[in-house]
Amino acid sequence: VITVVCGGVGAARLLAGLVQVVDPAEIVAIGNTGDDLVLHGLSISPDLDTITYTLAGEVNPETGWGRRGESWSAMAALEQLGGPSWFRLGDRDLGTHLFRTGRLAAGGSLTEVTAEIATAFGLGLTLLPMSDDPVRTRLELVSGEDVSFQEYFVRLQHDVAVRTVRFDGADAAHPAPGVLEALEDAARIVIAPSNPVVSIGPVLAVPGIRAILRRRRADVTAISPIVGGAALKGPADRLLRELGAESSAAGVAAWLADVAATLIIDEVDRDLASEITRLGVAARVTETVMRTPALAAALAAFALDGTVATA
Ligand code: FO1
Fold it and tell me: How far is ligand 1, taken at its centre, from the CA of residue 49, in Å?
């Protein structure tokens, strides 16, 4: 089994590469649910849906979230009523949220519902939420305002300085069924190129998960989402800086040093390899920008063929 700790878009792209080089039946993806929200009474799990839609070839290729070929009639009708439409929910995407909300209201667990949705979309791999309990990423801004992840990421377009990040509910959360086993039994564990602070962070905050990764650090390979000092997508670079880390592949290595013995960095960051090695993390260099499915497959294969790090 290959177990992948996942956030959103970057993780989905890596998984789309991984399923080309490993039997999907051998892959377990543990998805971040810290981005989740209840909006209009609907339970929405953005990172789980991004992974599902991407692997099903259904994701909106321009945005990396939501479904391709969307219509927006429901949002338009909501706007006519003066309802909040800042968080864009397409008509087809709404079907997913209606299904998830109905199944949860009927007593289904997020794990069960996630598996039903993944099966309906024909996913071969196992997609698990990190927990069935609510864990909500919240950010205290330098302005003093306290906002949810989606208010920060979408409504404020993450164009505001952050003072602290926390994961409400994490301490009381239990890993979803199968999560600890998937981490214990994995031949290799991969931390996807997702935002280490707000996408990987919530997963590591679920009690029990970080301890396993620390113990199995030598079998854990992370992939840097920061390339040339910048995030390919989203606020990872500025968040690292605002939280006192370096906004670079070396900053990512330091951030994940206790759970990953190896960090894959991009060719453009080759000169950071020695600094990363000094952190006790083995740096491996390759093309990490997944511009094409073939590059995603090559990155996935590279991540798996690495020797077990001794550092
Ligand atoms: N991201 C945006 O920037 N704007 C949106 O309106 C938006 C809506 C949305 C709806 C469903 C969904 O699953 C994801 C959505 N996202 C949107 C992305 C979302 O903010 C994710 O949490 C990020 O991609 C970070 O993982």
Answer: 10
- Helices 9-21 and 293-305, axial angle in degrees (round to 10): 80
Alpha carbon distance 149, 197 (integer Å): 12
Strand pairing report for 146-148 and 136-141:
antiparallel
Q: Is the Cα dihedral 304, 306, 310, 311 positive or negative?
A: negative
CA 50 to ligand 1: nearest atom:
13
pTM for this prediction: 0.97
Q: pLDDT tens-digit profile of 79-115?
A: 999 999 999 999 999 999 999 999 999 999 999 999 9
pLDDT digits (tens, 9 = 90+) for 110-159: 999 999 999 999 999 999 999 999 999 999 999 999 999 999 999 999 99
Pocket test for ligand 1, best of 33, 43, 87 (most atoms within 8 A of CB): 87
